[in-house]
Write a structure and sequence with these properties.
94 residues
């Protein structure tokens, strides 16, 4: 979703340069930055919720007596979530 946000932002930027404006259901024009930030934020939020849910599941397994070990899933998802937050900040600043 994060990468898709960048792609859609670029598409909307190209459409705006060609004077093709897209209006949403409320009649407002969708800007490239707005579309990109919305999709990047949605993907980042979903990733953060998934990491928290995964950690909760791991704690439940530990409570049941299973040994804990390094979770590559949590590490990769955490790095991607950080990149998503940084991407939103970069779009907001530019």
């Amino acid at each position: 979703m994060i990468g898709f946000g960048f792609t859609m932002a670029k598409l909307f930027q190209l459409l705006a340069e060609a004077n093709i404006l897209i209006k949403g259901p409320a009649g407002r024009i969708w800007t490239p930055v707005g579309v990109g930030m919305a999709l990047i934020s949605l993907g980042t939020f979903a990733l953060i919720v998934a990491v928290l849910d995964h950690r909760r599941e791991l704690k439940q397994l530990q409570t049941a007596g299973l040994k804990s070990r390094f979770s590559l899933t949590t590490a990769v998802a955490s790095v991607l979530a950080i990149l998503g937050v940084m991407s939103c900040l970069a779009l907001a600043v530019s």
